[in-house]
Amino acid sequence: MSMTLPPSPAPAAAPRRWRDLALLGGLMALVVAGLIGLAAATGWAETRAQLLRLGPVQVAALLGFSLVNYLMRGLRWHLFARRIGLPPGLVRDMRHFLGGFLMSATPGRVGELVRIRWIRRETGVPLDRSAPLFLVDRAADLVAMALILAGALALSASGIAGALPLAGLALGTAVVATRPRLLAGLVTLAYRALGCCPRLFVRARGMARALRHFSHSGTLAAAVGLGVVGWMAEGVAFYMLLIWLGADIALSTATAIFVFATLAGGLTGAPGGLGGAEAAMIALLTLEGLPPETSIAATAVIRVTTLWFAIGLGAMVFPIAERMSKRTRHAMENR
Q1: pTM of the predicted protein model
Q2: Distances 135 to 80, 183, 211, 244, 301 between C-alpha atoms, Å
Q3: In three state form, how does the secondary structure of 188-245 look?
Q4: Could you tell me the membrane topology recorded for this protein (predicted)?
Q5: Half-sphere exposure of residue 153: CA atoms within 13 angstroms, side-chain side
């Protein structure tokens, strides 16, 4: 008598991924609805006229500046990967970095930890050693953006309420995240306060200590430098976009608005800072005297050519990274 085997359960990651994408879709729908509402309030004709100022060359330039940002930060990821002892592999590291952009769709961007899974599959490096790479990469972004924001504010004739405290918060968070002893001490204090999950806190303390691999001053200086070049490229793109839309604004002011809105959006924990970044950007541009139709058009375009361009790249590279990591793991297991 033949026996029918029950179907294999679907991987747990698949439902989570669909939930994350559904959440992203819902947030994006709210953002789009808000932008449409604002455009309707100011006049569809005016907003549409502003968008029509841009041609293929301008859009290609904006995407090019974003690509500079991603390549600089990808090189930084490669630099950090070498510090934890991964074998040479620039193409592999860039594949991991770009593929992880698809997981920007997750709350707090925690889904980008998929890069750590790919590292383990392809190199065998354990989680405790590779996970700090993700933390120090985020910290390097915070330092670079805080430095750009502080410098832009110093050069700008306009001020942004709360910008300096936000820059200080970003720098402070980055300092804590890159100091092994300090972070390990905070983990210990948290364990003593909560008194639970000892195994989890032991692992977290071990990961904190692993940050020593990145404490070399030359490594940190190079990482921050790459981050500054990358994020400054997107600030310049935002400035050029505003000029093309007819705005009279300084480079320092445009850069400060872009970086501040990006950091403020990240504080919301929403995927890609959706909602918060757009609201901050539109409000600050309007305070600078730009007409609402220009503020809305500029915000919509820059978010498409930065956040959504990154997610699009991630969608193209993610399947390749997943397939390559599985193939490498199988090859290692069959040796």
Answers
A1: 0.78
A2: 11, 11, 9, 37, 30
A3: HHHHHHHCCCHHHHHHHHHHHHHHHHHCCHHHHHHHHHHHHHHHHHHHHHHHHHHHHC
A4: Multi-pass membrane protein
A5: 19
